[in-house]
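R.M. (postdoc): so does anyone remember the format we settled on? I'll just put the structure tokens first.
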């Protein structure tokens, strides 16, 4: 299903990105509309896939996940079977917050959040025991300067 996004939809989406836990009344007031049209627009955008899963954002450091690694992976395997196995391994690992297939020298980049370097090593050892990779480089993030899930609407 396709949906056209207009200026009011963008205002609604911006409001939801800031805080989706607010009431429809609050969002409607903020965007200059009433509750029913805002609800209908949100429903249509959900049905069209513009709005996905709603969740909460947790503070990883407050929960003990103080180490963030960016893992660069090069592989000499490009067959469909290998790729399917690799994707299964990534999806099964809760430490992997993001995974991207890249163009260029590096085939994949992962964002991995763990308690510490020892936990990263356990993750690394488990991953390479399940799937063959040519080269892995782990980069420890020293400081998170910016992190957001908000799109620039």
């Amino acid at each position: 299903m396709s949906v056209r996004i207009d200026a009011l939809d963008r205002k609604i989406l911006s409001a939801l990105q800031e805080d989706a836990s607010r009431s429809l009344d609050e969002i409607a007031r903020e965007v200059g509309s009433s509750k029913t049209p805002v609800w209908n627009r949100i429903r249509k955008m959900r049905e069209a896939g513009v709005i996905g899963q709603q969740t909460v954002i947790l503070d990883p450091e407050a929960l003990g996940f103080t180490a963030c690694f960016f893992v660069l992976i090069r592989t000499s395997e490009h067959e469909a079977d290998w790729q399917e196995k690799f994707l299964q391994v990534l999806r099964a690992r809760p430490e992997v917050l993001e995974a991207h297939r890249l163009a260029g020298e590096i085939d994949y980049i992962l964002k991995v959040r763990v308690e510490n370097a020892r936990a990263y090593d356990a993750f690394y050892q488990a991953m390479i025991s399940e799937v063959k990779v040519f080269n892995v480089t782990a980069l420890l993030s020293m400081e998170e300067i910016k992190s957001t899930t908000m799109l620039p609407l």
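R.M.: ...and that's the designed sequence above, right after the tokens. Also worth knowing: The CA atoms of residues 74 and 106 lie 5 Å apart. The chain has two domains: 7-47, 67-140.
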